[in-house]
Amino acid sequence: MKPSASPILYHIYVRSFYDSNGDGIGDLQGIIEKLDYFDWLGVDGILLSPVFESPLSDFGYDITSLRGLNTEYGDMATFTKLVAEAKNRGLSVMLDFVANHTSSKHPWFIESSASATSAKADWYIWAPAKNDGTPPNNWLTIFGESAWRWHPTRGQYYLHNTLSNQPDLNYRNPDVVRELNKSVRFWLDTGVSGLRLDSVNLFLHDDKLRNNPPRHLGWQDDARTDPYRYQSQRYNISRPENIHLLKQLRGIADGYDDKKWLLGSLSDPSPYAVIDRYTSESDALDAANVFESLSLCHSVGQVGEQLDDFMKSVHPGIGCWSTGNHDIARTVSRWQDANNQPEAAKLLLTMLMSLQGVISLFQGEELGLPEADVPPSLRRDLFGKQVIANYVGRDGCRTPMPWLSEAENLGFSASPPWLPADPTHSEYAIDKQQQDESSVLHFTRALLYWRKQHVAMQHGACRVLAYNQTLMVLERHHEEQTLIIALNASNNEATVRLNLPSDAKSLSLPHMADAVPENHGVLKLLPWQAWVGELVRS
Ligand code: NOJ
């Protein structure tokens, strides 16, 4: 994989992908049994959600061993078999690697929290209360609560930049860095193509624990409802010293003959500047995705703003783009006017596949799968529900993959699954869509193939030429080829003036009605229609 080649990674939420042993939980063997599916679809690799030992209060982002597998998913032999079989098919395997924090049930944290003189006392970030008993400083988590939690046994506060049962490790301690390096090598030695480092900009914090200064925003914002935005996160996240740690990991990754990939996932109010620093400026990471980015967008207008911001950067970084993931409502259900329509799913997939960098396609997006309706009594993401106000949790995008429309549990498992399969997903099932040439699934497959045929889509630089709330025009340019992509993300017909040269030629997008620009580049697009044109060089 090369960053400029825009590889497509299929993001697997392991627990809900396919259950091979009938315990209601997706597993590694299940992925092995479905490898043909990835061949058929035409993706370049798979990215596995965290597979490490975990008490699962945050479904794998709370780990109790960085070198142990969650046995519900399988053993090491199955893991290495998966990596080898994927490789035989030319598929890369990437792991979502959670190293910023551990679970509070990790033996290291238990030891660290027992006393300030324990051998692992400094493996986490501990600090005494202020005189009035309040936390050591004003740092907040992205959820707006204090990033410090009192530990009664130790009699001190510990830092948690994400959830309160996920204490941040102390990477100023060389013993902890040694453990990290050991774990990185352990997984890279298994033959995986690389790691996606979760919360990659949170690893190091200010050693003096200085207070973050306020951020002054417009009058319309309310510090009481969104306190995090009212702080400039100068001292707790995206610290300059973080780069040294990442570069050291880069050194490890580069030590392998098949130069391993390091991706990152980050969250920062100015995310693109951080991506620049971590990718193009320092080369520490091959690409990075931003949590705040497209996964939080509801309209192409918002996507246009994000891309504009991204491209304005000093050294435009290398992005890893996705419209859906395991933390956010399904794309076709949250997008403005999309209302779960297949035509909207196709247009939004076209938008995603038109971007430059690494593309991460979340499982089910290739089906146009809508957000599942999980009855309150069966919801499992209690944590998400607890920390985010007025939020039902993240279960709706994590339900089992619908493999067979008529089978029990939609063919995911022989037993009742850990989260119920949504009966309305039966009409989106893979078997059904594979038989229907006009389905979203066939469209996705054809689109991936089409993308590979166009050098500008694979290697070209990307620019946003214009956008409003529902329309966006992109350009992809690579040496000999310039493509213009116009996207109408609405239920209405739209007219776009493209200012095209007279010899511009329309290319047919697979499985989508052709639009033809009239004189002077006036293009009429049907609802949810895309057009791609090629500028011919004279
Ligand atoms: C990012 C993950 O995507 C999310 O699922 C998790 O809750 C947070 N990290 C906290 O670890």
Automatic annotation (TrEMBL):
Keyword flag RNA-binding:
no
**A GO molecular function for this record?**
alpha-amylase activity
**The Glycosyl hydrolase family 13 catalytic domain, residue ranges:** 11-398
Q: Which InterPro entries match?
A: GH, GH13_cat_dom, Glyco_hydro_b, O16G_dom_2
Keyword tags: Glycosidase, Hydrolase
Q: In the UniProt record, does the keyword Hydrolase occur?
A: yes
SUPFAM superfamilies per the record? (Trans)glycosidases, Glycosyl hydrolase domain
Q: What GO biological process terms are annotated to this protein in UniProt?
A: oligosaccharide catabolic process
What's the superkingdom here? Bacteria
* Family statement drawn from the similarity comment of this UniProt entry: Belongs to the glycosyl hydrolase 13 family.
Q: State what protein this is by name.
A: Maltodextrin glucosidase
